[in-house]
Amino acid sequence: MESARLYQALTDQIQHLLLTISHAAAIDSSGEQIEVLSKHALKIIDSYTCSINQVKLELEPVNVSSALYDVAHSLRPLSRQLGCDLSIDVRGMQMPVMTHRQTLKDILFLLGSSVLHSHSSNEKSELVFGAHSTKIGVVAGVFSSIHNITQSDIRQAHQLLGRAHTPSPLLGSSGTSIVLADKLSQQLNTSLKSIRHNAINGIGVALNTSNQLQLVS
Amino acid sequence: MNILLIEPDKLLAKNLSSQFESKGVNVDYRFSAQTALDALDEKSNIHCIVIEIQLGLHNGVEYLYEIRSHAGWQDIPVVIHTSNRNVLHEEFRDGWASLGVRDILYKPQITFSKLLSTIKQAA
Fold this sequence. Notes:
The structure holds 2 protein chains of 2 kinds. In chain A, about 50% of the residues lie in helices and about 20% in strands. Chain A is built from 7 helices and 7 strands, in the order H-H-E-H-E-E-H-E-E-H-H-E-E-H. Chain B has a 5-stranded parallel β-sheet, with helices on both faces. In chain B, helix 2 packs parallel to helix 3 (about 60-70). The interface of A and B includes residues 15, 29 and 120 of A.
């Protein structure tokens, strides 16, 4: 049943992205917009495929900062179009984490694009791609200057997926991206959590540091 | 012609606004039902309201009931431009008409030209 609802929500979101792309193409001045929306649609489809195929991922030491920078760079055109400032904030020396680099980037991209769409009001806003060390490892995610994202927003995205057009206004769109990000997180032996970073709330994942490099240091 | 566009997706609204303005239609764009009520307070020369029913917090139906309860806003025509297919059902037509809705357009199947001509007919 959940997979049917996920599929329904996914098709709704892809349809919406394609609709926006078609209007962007009609005014013929938004190549950047078409590119970023197309990438978003492709990312959703790819993430859905990965989540249902349950591929066993080879984990490797990954520098979280570089993943955050890559994803922030790819979402900068969208943030510009939506009038939202985007920044990266990595606190302290970051030990590499044991994860799958591309999957981590996909998770961050899905979270970032979802929360960006929730910043669609005319309010001045900022989205932060952040990471910091904790006792259990490194937490990385996206943090909103205007929305207080909590664990109940994540729960709501799951519960209302495919049933409500916008399961959580704070997470933008149909909740598909959030649920897919959560499914991908589970493939990394973690899950989405609401996290606090530098006094702002957001959503992200906790990752184990790389033991190999801990031994060296 | 001046229209009030109520659409929760800012990118889509931005693109639609560009298309409308290239055809000489002035657009006041609002993201939510609440800010759309403020728009009607601020401006008296709105010729048509174009609204997505699926809004983030208060939905479009609540908005329509709200505006029809104001003496000065009862005659402003409304065109629904929505991605919710259920809104199209024939059984709801009379209900929409009683709220001053002149037409309901399903976004994925409607060209911009059709949207524009519908609005011009309604206004």
